[in-house]
Amino acid sequence: MSTYALKKNSVFSSFLSQFFAVMLFCSALCANEKLGEEEHLGSYVPLDIPFLDETGKQVTFRQLMDGKPIILTLNYYVCPALCTLQLQDLAKNLEKVKLTENKDYKVITLSFDPVETPKDAAHKKSELMAPLTHFDTKA
């Protein structure tokens, strides 16, 4: 290997080492920061929290339940990958269940992105599972 190639390889290796050291340092700092998330393990979802449904109407879980069990999914509506796959898989698997949606249970998909709108929810509903679920956004 030429002297130039060795020097170039050494500079690149040094750069990579420094880059990864900085990344590790930053990830350690970020790991210690609170990101505004609070866990409420063992808690129940309050039934009277208001949401906007896919039509823009304000509703609560209590109104949507009608005394039926709920399958609650948390997704982004404007999501090209995992959220869409999860919803497609849910729809496919619910077709196999010997229960009737809206009669025996309800499915509610809730976005946790504060920027998404009822229009985004309506689009995702029409795109994926129009007759299957009730799509809501946080009020």
Short description:
With 139 residues, this protein is an alpha/beta fold. It has helices at residues 3-32, 61-65, 82-94, 118-128; strands at 50-53, 58-60, 70-75, 106-111, 134-138.
What does this structure look like?
The chain has 139 residues and is α/β, with parallel strands linked by helices. The chain folds into 2 domains: 1-36; 50-138, Glutaredoxin, CATH 3.40.30.10. Helix content is 42%, strand content 17%. The chain is built from 4 helices and 5 strands. The longest helix has 30 residues, at 3-32.
Helix-strand layout with pairing:
Elements: H1 3-32, E1 50-53, E2 58-60, H2 61-65, E3 70-75, H3 82-94, E4 106-111, H4 118-128, E5 134-138
Parallel strand pairs: 3-4, 4-5
Antiparallel strand pairs: 1-2, 1-5
